[in-house]
Amino acid sequence: MEIGIDSFAAILPDPATGKLPSPTVRMAELIEEVEVADRVGLDVFGIGEHHRGEFLDSAPTVILAAAAARTSRIRLTSAVTVLSAADPVRVFQEFATLDLISKGRAEVVVGRGSFVEAYPLFGLNTRDYDDLFAEKLDLLLRLGETTNVTWEGRFRPPLRGQGVFPRPHQPQLPIWIGVGGTPQSFARAGTLGLPLMVAIIGGSFERFRPLVDLYREAGKLAGHGAETLKVGVHAMGFVGETEAVARDAFFPGWAHLTTNIGRERGWSPPTRQQFEAMAGPEGAFLIGDPKTVAAKMLQASETLGGVSRITFQMSTASLDTAAMKTSIELLGTEVAPIVRATRRA
What we know:
Blueprint: E1 2-7, H1 23-39, E2 44-47, H2 60-68, E3 75-78, E4 81-82, H3 88-101, E5 108-111, H4 118-121, H5 129-145, E6 148-151, E7 159-163, E8 175-179, H6 183-192, E9 196-200, H7 209-221, E10 231-239, H8 243-265, H9 272-279, E11 286-288, H10 290-303, E12 309-313, H11 321-344
Parallel strand pairs: 1-2, 1-12, 2-3, 4-5, 5-8, 8-9, 9-10, 10-11, 10-12
Antiparallel strand pairs: 6-7
Helix pairs in contact: 1-11, 2-3, 3-5, 6-7, 10-11
């Protein structure tokens, strides 16, 4: 199982003063977090894409390129690229360039986005939410197969055999599909034979098993081998020396962001009791001491029928930069060895 971290480059106010930290300082801290993850042997680091004041990740490939120059082995990916609101040609060029800088460590996870700010920002209509993604994914996959593409669609000018450069360092740029809870998205990824990254940010892992089964069945029906139908999980996660330390470090930022976003979506404010339930044995938060987190990761993989990758969304703990780095170190030096040894046994 590959183990990694996803960050949304959250920038959160100090709970005591209400003041925001410097975006420049926060960005420097984020690059240091990627360096720590590389040093302790984690497999992958992802940067999200949002167009909101709470996050600094509106240009993820720029952040990933900066990280590529400061790391040597960790794979670098988006988490996720909002492909529906982007030009697939530009997405391919940016990640191919990242792949050259990183000497073959780039990946892209594409999705429609759970936040919709990108659509009006780039002059798109949310009523085309699914059609935009389907068409642009088709073009992105074609760009990965050949340099000179002839293609026509509804949402961008046609291509008449123009060359798209540069080409990536890897023979094929890895493309994952990022999904939430829509059955059609799981089935589409399986039919295309693309690896699946499932965002499980609440509830339980068990709830997603039917959807993962749908993905695998759709892939099988389309003639894809089981080895190509990889499943990854993006989950809320944090590691501390003790369970209490981990939960106390993660909760304030999580509560702040969830309250703000929930206010826009008509949710009730989250409670500490709800948080504790999701961090408990039946919930989908991977938060606790190293042994607890490792055991829960292995259980999640078993529940979902086998998982190839788990990435921890730690951004909401960025209020405490020292705790963030400690969590990354514990994930690489204590959690990962337990998980890898158990999977090999």
